[in-house]
Amino acid sequence: MPPSDQPASAPQEPSVALIIGAVAATLLLASLGQTIVSTALPTIVGQLGGLDHLTWVVIAYLLSSTVVAPIYGKLGDLFGRKVVLQSAIVIFLVGALLSALASTMTFLVVARAIQGLGGGGLMVVAMTVVADIIPPRQRGKIQGIFAAVFGVATVVGPLLGGFIVENLSWQWIFLINIPVGLLALGVIAVALKPREERVKRKVDYAGFVLLSGALTTFVLATSLGGTTYPWMSIQIVGLLVAAAVFLAAFIWTEARAAEPVLPLQLFRNNTFLVTNSIGFLVGMAMFGSITFLPMYLQLAKGVSPTDSALQLLPMMVGLIGGSMVSGFIMTRTGRYRILPRASTFVLTIGMLLLATMSLDTPSWQIAGFMLLVGIGIGPVNSVSVTATQNAVPRALVGVATAGTTLFRQIGGSIGVSVFGAIFSSGLAARMGDLLPGSEGTASFDASAVAAMPPALREQVLEAFAGALHPVFFVAAAVAALAFGLTFLLEERPLSNTLREDPPEAELDAAEQGAASISGVPATATR
């Protein structure tokens, strides 16, 4: 039976269910790799020393996983999903084992970078596998579930990390990945069919190198700017200039490559361009603002780090609910354009409400605000992947899916940096007279605030809460911009069958060019 005639009931096969379970496990591994280490960092630094390398434990994973995302997407298109996904799992597990064996902070940073090289592939290729075995209309509910996995990891990661550190040792934060990864590796080896055809391929090595250089320098600039170095320092300016040079060279190279790692024609595809622009902005608002919610809860409300993580549960519930409901709506109706429009509107309202928080805002109101933010974030993640996979030629599904991950992560990196700079400068201005010589939050924490005289403590906390208002107002503006972009999104009804490519009548000229440049035959299972 040709792929275009396969019935929508195909996803009910047991092997497909096994693959979906293995994919969910690999996505959980990758997302936990980003969040589980945060609560363990003080303990790790206490044992290994190297306080100056603390942030690099997080940055190393973020940077390497971001850089390799589009590369894995293209390799999956070229060589098949199975072998590339298996390779990513192995690299991730090797990095996890090395991290557990680290005896110095420098060694741990290197090991985390290796782990990120695998983690970036887990996220991209795992989500692409769905496009090979599930018809577009049926992918909505699956991608909704996968988006919910990221929401779970956002809250569960720090909680699990804290539990492991308190009851076992920090090494188990990394060792716990190994049995889950081996199980996923075994299931994929049995259930996922390899690509059978053999074709001659031209690997775009120059594109790989230039894209890696552009992303590396850019992510480093946004991660270090305003924290390790001032934004206008020679180091940050130099990194941004280098990123621009790499990007220009990359564009020039991709326009001439036989099989580009990130085909430029994708950016003339309305669905790819608009959904990724929305994803970039939502990622910026999400990561940039969520970073400060635990800080607000710990300082303004006086809760413990673990309790502050628990109080993020309403956001997780909203994110999971929004992701799954939007997925089922896509599956039932075959439509999606209204979903990001409604969710970004809700996200804008949620951010505006967070901007009204003060020291005496009741906890139940804060929970309601966070619930709205979660509802606003969830549908964007599931819609972007499903809509993009439905709108591009099958030979470019992998690299297009990688683009959704890439833009969301870069948006998050920029959001953390930009909002961090807004908060730090606002707090320093407000606290200049209260605590002379203070710089941002460097001079106090929850215990230091608690030890202050009552009158001074009240003033300091008021300054802290006031410094958060611009952060959430800017996040609301970013969400509003994303809402505006949703009106530019064209709708391509989701197909209920697996097919090689969207029908010729639905392909615009740019997509036809992308399909011809790829030169890679597509198959129903890879």
TrEMBL record:
CDD domains associated with the record: MFS_Azr1_MDR_like
GO molecular function: transmembrane transporter activity
Protein topology in the membrane: Multi-pass membrane protein
Cellular component, GO annotation: plasma membrane
Regions crossing the membrane: 16-41, 53-72, 84-108, 114-133, 145-164, 170-192, 204-225, 231-252, 273-297, 309-330, 342-359, 365-385, 406-429, 467-489
Compartment(s): Cell membrane
Signal sequence segment: none
Name of this protein: MFS transporter
Species per Swiss-Prot/TrEMBL record: Devosia oryzisoli
